[in-house]
Amino acid sequence: MFKRILVANRGEIALRVIRACRELGIETVAICSEADRDASYLELADEAICVGPARAADSYLRIDRVISAAEIGNVQAIHPGYGFLSENSHFAEVCRSCDIGFIGPTPEAMAQLGDKNSARTLAMKANVPCVPGSDGLVASEQEALEVARKIGYPVLLKATAGGGGRGMRVASNDLTLQSAFQQAATEAQAAFGNAGIYLEKYVERPRHVEVQIIGDMHGNVVHLWERDCSTQRRHQKLIEESPSPRLAQATREAMCEAAVRLAKTAGYYSTGTVEFIVDQEGNFYFIELNSRIQVEHPVTEMVTGIDLIKAQIRVAAGEPLGFSQDDIVQRGHAIECRINAEDPAHGFRPCPGRIEKMIVPGGFGVRFDSHVSSGYVVPPHYDSLIGKLIVHQPTRREAIETMQRALKELRVEGVKTTVPIHLEILSHSAFHDSQIDTTFVERTLLG
Amino acid sequence: MFKRILVANRGEIALRVIRACRELGIETVAICSEADRDASYLELADEAICVGPARAADSYLRIDRVISAAEIGNVQAIHPGYGFLSENSHFAEVCRSCDIGFIGPTPEAMAQLGDKNSARTLAMKANVPCVPGSDGLVASEQEALEVARKIGYPVLLKATAGGGGRGMRVASNDLTLQSAFQQAATEAQAAFGNAGIYLEKYVERPRHVEVQIIGDMHGNVVHLWERDCSTQRRHQKLIEESPSPRLAQATREAMCEAAVRLAKTAGYYSTGTVEFIVDQEGNFYFIELNSRIQVEHPVTEMVTGIDLIKAQIRVAAGEPLGFSQDDIVQRGHAIECRINAEDPAHGFRPCPGRIEKMIVPGGFGVRFDSHVSSGYVVPPHYDSLIGKLIVHQPTRREAIETMQRALKELRVEGVKTTVPIHLEILSHSAFHDSQIDTTFVERTLLG
Amino acid sequence: MAVESSGDVFDVKQIRRLIELMKKHDLTEIDLKQADQRVRIRRGSDDEPRVVAAPVARATETAAAPPSEAKADDSNHVVITSPMVGTFYRASSPEASPFVKVGDRIGPESTVCIIEAMKVFNEIPSGVSGQVVAVLVENGAPIEFGQPLVKVDPGA
Amino acid sequence: MAVESSGDVFDVKQIRRLIELMKKHDLTEIDLKQADQRVRIRRGSDDEPRVVAAPVARATETAAAPPSEAKADDSNHVVITSPMVGTFYRASSPEASPFVKVGDRIGPESTVCIIEAMKVFNEIPSGVSGQVVAVLVENGAPIEFGQPLVKVDPGA
User: Which residues, given as ranges, of chain B have pLDDT below 50?
Assistant: First the structure.
């Protein structure tokens, strides 16, 4: 097992890793930017090394400085957390070339899964359902029509070089497809200098369901069941829960097995998340595999009782998993709300500043993961997550009730938070009835 | 179900009850003394009524004022918490005569179990092992010798009117018994005006193991397994855990069944705790039944996943238990440390005052029940408990590791706390090996 | 809260409340005077040249100056508070006239109200002599321990 | 709490609480008077002449005491900080003499040390001209971003 590791991240996930290490008896070296220098969670690390100024590109994202910190910190491995360098396969390669352990999968697996096309190819090889679509680019309107008729309408036209919704068009019949194809190609050419267009089935009102997996270096891969992250605002997850409500048990099992097949096919170890969308008929389609720990991992920890960060560190040190698929049972229902320093009344704009006072909720079934306490200053340079409130109860209904009372207990003075929107969602009948898809928040609450 | 209840207590247990009620959708009226008027947890109640000055005898213990508060607060029932009026059967009777629900057992069951002699008689009737001893008072030295020879040395002489160790003597053979008998009787006469002495088997280095039970008004009684509270200082519990380590499974089951038998025999409902001592050979003996919720109830909640306060309120409202014995499984290992505002370096003297800053531990497997936050003033009038730190992990070893890291995370500035003694105990090899009895702390750490 | 502003200017709780008001309404200064009591709080940066002596001098002057009639009276009032929890009644029965009303002269033994607690009707004696300035609670209202009931001017 | 309104102006706990309130809420002044008792606290930079009552004057004088000579000089020094994370070397090799030592005159282009990061040896230029007053890091020590390395007196 490692004796000393570098925590190459900040905020709550840095604290989460430090906590796991303290329990495992592993010393930690934290990195920080100048903006985070005074954060109290750094006191829980054995050492803290400032790697640069506030701007992430000059500190947390600087591979050379992070590696230098690992060298002067004399660590055996680096935990990348989420975000920043966590899915940078080049960084994982540099670690390997410097003979520093990377607490994550191999750079090869990361690279392969990080590319949309190769990931899709892998998924098909592993017999994991993907959204039906064209086999690569569609060269002409005529080809688009043929594909669309084959997979059925509505279809989505996407620019191969695209992103952020630009160059995307939905078509629900031949007529709209014909006009959409030209528009999309023109827009893509203008925006990205690449008119390449591909086509896939458009899934209406999908649910976002993801499967937590973990594998070791000895070929064992297991899943830890699913999380439902359909409660989103502009593709940002707000609330995550496990189990996914209204998911047929057969679908749940099929998805989880598909996730494990994919990971095995990719030669994947460490923790990972296989993301799917589920359509209104209960069909599920692979989207991507995130080769890191996720923000919402505690939801899975609550229902399975397994500490994912500890397990992730253990397998990175070469230990076998230590549990088999049969050991992993989903017990009760867990919900997580992301508490962000944002102002829901003003378009969720970030609300950095000094937290004058914070009173944290507690009691039965409540877990609060946060690096923040009274007096903490939320820096304007990073994401606005100031805490994750997680509850665990025997039933979903009780979990909602506990989350509501815990949100009302949480007191944050000095900055605005997302607590009001969470309370609004949790009291909505559609949430109670689990009639949630990824468009719910914008459709119902912010429309 | 109740719509509105009075919380007739203060501090963390008042907050605990308020939390449960908020989840159940029950309104709460809190009482407070003048000393607690500004405590922030009162803001979580729907109403707070000041019932008297700081001194508990003039506020929290004043039955007339508590009942008046219930009347002007327009509540249907009173939750007494622990301590204060919680085991006062007269108070329960007054509630009944005023047609206010009492969230606890019947006054009759309380009275019967509150009296040492009738409780012992009940236990014997229920075939629950009691510490072998004289059948009531021993009239003469000769009789004492006969009983002692029958039950075997060492024996303990106790004043029937006694308390606090006065009038107590241990005798390990006939010779010491003869002199001890006269001394004990003389001392008892002088101290209590009653020379009555009884005799029981002296259990050396006992472990304190208690069984959590709950019953409803429909005759159902179940146990929620045991807690080990052997880590004590001067009969004050410091650390509680579940399961009890090194307890043979057959013994565990026999104790738990005995506890249920006793409760059924007593016509008991609500939550209760049956306390036993376990000798070095694994024999267990009934001590008493506490007819209330206990400080350490969260330990049981963690391993069983059952919210005891909610369950207690439900059965008080006449609802059936809603779970059977088979539903109650002990999962993993839970430990609780009582965080008191006391100074371990100076004989654990209470350390009231203003808590300038408090940072609360969090993360996987950690629960913190506390009414305290930065700026809270610990009043000098009540017990010094400022929080309960509870951890839950798959194994005892992991639970200890999590507790250690959580204790180190907890920051309380302004008052001294019991955190250092907890860290000392948790790092002691005897604690790791579960070689703990009720004399451990004084014998090993404070000697 | 009127209840808790007991008239002790050194009451930190009260000061805290004043500061919250200042912050909420963005006040830079609060200056409260009553008889020989004074509370003055200033906040925020203050760049204007100021003869600091002046306000202080004023303060001392104020203290020495004779306070306004009404306020001066006020500070000398005695507030009778509830010794128990219960329901407040101004009269012995719905038909009867109130025990006291504003302007009445009362002695220490005078009953000022009845508090019903647990079906027992407790007559609350004044404890002071003087003139009733205000009755602070509505008939039939629930009251908690320590709640102000009646204000008396002992000097009148 | 009785503690908080003791009426004793010399109650240190109470004063501490007031000061905390001032700091927390950015107050510049609190002035409390009651009968013959008075508590007045002012804080923050204040360049104005202060003619106030005796105890207050004493308090403010202390706060405004001029800094010592040494410290004034100190503030004119320029501290060269590390632009990266790595290992600090005073010389280009174990045998070579240090790039700079105390007393040396240096220019902006002068190399003051080498920082090794990821096997690359980076020469760190001074950036200022002046006289080296202190070398703040031991040879071979690990250094973080922004860590002070060398102190220079640009006026010397």
Answer: none
Of the three residues B55, B79, B101, the one that is the final residue of a domain is: B101
Q: Are residues C78 and C20 both part of a single domain?
A: no
Task: Measure Cα distances from B63 to B67, B312, C85 in Å.
Answer: 6, 22, 11
Residue B114 contacts by C-beta under 8 Å, 6 or more apart in sequence? B87, B89, B291
Residue in D87, D145, D147 closest to A65 by CB? D145
B153 burial level (CB within 10 Å; 0-12, 13-18, 19+): middle
Same domain membership, residue D69 and residue D23 = no
Per-10-residue mean pLDDT of chain D, 156 residues long, equals: 42 66 71 68 48 29 30 69 94 93 94 91 92 94 94 88
Q: Does C133 reside within a domain?
A: yes
Residues C69 and C37 in one domain: no
Q: What is the 3-state secondary structure (H, E, C) of B306-360?
A: CCHHHHHHHHHCCCCCCCCHHHCCCCCEEEEEEEECEEHHHCCEECCEECCEEEC
Question: A45: nearest CA in chain B?
Answer: B409
Q: Which CATH number covers residue B21?
A: 3.40.50.20
CA distance A11 to B329: 37
Distance in angstroms (rounded) separating the CA atoms of residues B124 and B265 = 10
In this structure, what are the phi and psi dihedrals at residue B338, rounded to the nearest 5 degrees?
-85, 120
Q: Which domain, by its residues, includes C14?
A: 1-46
Separation between Cα atoms, residue A213 and residue A308, nearest integer Å: 10
**Range(s) of the domain holding residue A368:** 207-445
pLDDT of residue B421: 95
Round to whole Å and give the CA distance between A80 and A58. 16
Same domain membership, residue D117 and residue D81: yes
Asked whether residue B331 is assigned to any structural domain, the reply reads yes
Is A405 an annotated catalytic residue? no
Q: Which amino acid is at D127?
A: G
Domain end point (choices A144, A178, A201): A201
Say whether both D130 and D110 belong to one domain: yes
CA neighbor of A199 nearest in space, from A227, A167, A244: A167
Residue among B360, B364, B402 whose CB faces A360 most closely: B360
**Parallel, antiparallel or unpaired: strands D148-153 and D78-81:** antiparallel
User: How many beta-carbon pairs below 8 A join chains A and D?
Assistant: 48
How does pLDDT run across B40-96, given as a tens digit for each residue?
A: 999 999 999 999 999 999 999 999 999 999 999 999 999 999 999 999 999 999 999
Please give the ipTM for the structure prediction.
0.77
Residues A186 and A285 in one domain: no
Whether B365 and chain A come into contact, CB under 8 Å, resolves to yes
| Together in a domain, B211 and B355 | yes
pTM given for the model: 0.84
For residue A169, give the CATH number of its domain: 3.30.1490.20
How does A100-115 read in b/e, with b if 16+ C-beta sit within 10 Å?
Answer: bbbbbbbbebbbbbbe
Tell whether A88 lies on the interface with D, counting CB pairs under 8 A: no
Any chains having at least 3 CB pairs less than 8 A from chain D are A, B, C
Question: Is the C-alpha dihedral spanning A196, A200, A206, A207 positive or negative?
Answer: negative
∠ Cα B130 B132 B138 (to 5°) = 120
Contacting partners of chain B (3+ CB pairs under 8 A): A, C, D
Q: What is the pLDDT of residues B185-196, one digit of tens each?
A: 888 888 888 888
CA dist., res. B417 & res. A200, Å (int)? 62
Distance of alpha carbon C114 from alpha carbon C112, whole angstroms: 7
Q: Backbone dihedral region of B40: left (phi > 0), alpha (psi from -120 to 50 degrees) or beta?
A: alpha
Domain count of chain B?
3
Q: How far apart are CA D68 and CA A11, in angstroms?
A: 40
Contact, B388 vs B360, CB < 8 A?
no
Q: Is residue A110 domain-resident?
A: no
Of residues D36 and C57, the one with the higher pLDDT is D36
Domain presence at residue A437: yes
